[in-house]
Structure formats: C-alpha cells, structure tokens
Amino acid sequence: MSRALSAAVAIAAVLAALVIVANTALTGIQLGELKLGPVLGPAADPNFVPAGAPLGQIGSDPDDPSDPWSAAAPPGGVIVQTAAPNATGSLRIPIPKNVPTGPRRVAIQAGHWKSDEAPDELRRLIPETGAEWEGVTEVEINLDIAQRLSVILNSKGIAVDVLPTTIPVGYVADAFVALHADSDGVGENSGFKMAHGARRGPYEDALLNDIKDSYGAGTGLDYDPIHITNSMRGYFAFNWSRFQHAVAAHTPAVILEMGYVSSDDDRALMLDRADLVANSIADGIMKFLNDTPRSQIFGHDLVVPAFPSRPSRPSSSP
Ligand SMILES: [Zn+2]
To answer: What's the CATH number where 124 sits?
Structure first.
C-alpha cells in the first residue's frame, strides 16, 4: 500500500468513528436490556419540544395570519408533562442556560422605541409608534425616563440594558420593566397602570407591587386599575409562546404605563419632573432586587399550565 493510500484509509477510519460517536450522542446506545441515553440535559427527554416547535393551540382562527394557530416553544425549549390522556397537563420550562453572572441585571424597555426595526414575527408593531398629544410623543417620554432610570440604577451597581421594541431572543435578566405612557384621546383620565403576563415565573406580582408602591408614593399619581387592558396583560414582550423575541419566562417582567400624555397634569409630571419619575421607579426595582436573590429567581425549572391541544381542523371538502 502506498503511503498516500494508507493515509487516506486512516482518515476514512477516523471519519467513520466520528460518525458513530456523533450518532451515539444523538440517539443513545443500546446494549442488550441497558439503554444508555445521550447526555443532553432536558433535550434528552422524549417530551422535549425544541425552540420554535408547536406546543398547542392559542389562536382561534387558523386562517387569520395575525392570530397564530399554534403556541411555540421558546428558546431553550420546554418539556410537555401530561397527567392523563387528553388532559391539558403542564409545561416545564428549564432554567435558562444564560443566567447572568456578576452584578444584578435589569432591562428597561423604552416603549415604541425603534418600532420600525421590529423583526418579521413582530411586524404588526412597526406602525405602532405610540401615543401623541399636543406635539408630545409617548416614545420621547419613554426613552427619556428609561435613560434617566439607567443612570440611577448604574449608580447603585446595577447593570442596565435599555431595550428598544425588539427584545433579544429569549432575553434573561433579574428584572424587566417596559415603560409606556397612555392617551385616552380626550384628556380626562389620569394615573398609572401596571400588568404582567401569564405562564411566567412566580416573582412578577412582587416586582409589580414594589414598583406600584414606590411609584405611587414618589409621584403622587393615583393607580388606575380600571383601564388596565388585555393588550397590557398580553404584552408581546411577555409572550414567549408566541414570539422568540420575548423575555424568558423566568425573568420577572412587568409593564408600567407611567401616566397619560393626554392629561395636562400627568404630562407635566413626566416632562418637568422626569428625575422624580425615574427615581420612583428605581426605588421599587431596588426593593425587588434586594428582596429577591438571583438564586431564587433562577433556582428551579418553571411549571406552567399547558396550552389546549389542537382540535382537528374542519375539513373544507364536503
Ligand atoms: Zn405605549
């Protein structure tokens, strides 16, 4: 055998061995009765659903592209746990792999900022540029308060991401606060509003209540529970089952409508006393972080109710 040929045979043997190793890593190896599974964490579970794969029904109209038919698994995937046949069961969301290390990390989203840069899955947000009243735009208020809040939190040793409309895929932090300001179109309503999503971690009520208390006390604004909307509770950034560009389910996340730009008093507060507004939010975030260690937020997999399974589509043929 020539030297070149024996080298080629040796390379072929190595490649064949690599293929066997790779296949074993994916499928596990069967040794008689003993099945040695691949060591891939949650992904090895037979009920693991990878990122982006369907999870159940959330839409009501399969023919309406703006009403997606199926929930999808978030980055990192989920494990479907069904108690009994036809039971809805639950979803287990593994602890994210990219839990921050170092200083506590908080995201402040400036609502509507750079909405024109939304990715395809969020294209319906592109024309949603926010409220406007007497030449004052909501987005300029949101961004101004977000930047002031970032400086205040930095001075307390907190790492801050000021985020635009587009959230990084599967975003993970110790807390996420979306800032908005509302308009009622007539100038009558005053006050602030808050909400969080569903099928998320257990610390969102605490984050919401800490900010609600500090914001109300600091600004003197009344809380306006009557006008909290489904679009606040179903805010796209909370909606990991529908969008990959959403805040990871473990990350405590709330939306704060800081006041009404359409109210003369609320608008004056947000424009002329912006530092007070920012400090009032910062106080609530700091209380939450001090009361809620990172090890607690990211200590366990989350178990949330599953989505209903997909009913069979009515046949269009007679
Ligand atoms: Zn808004």
So the answer is: 3.40.630.40
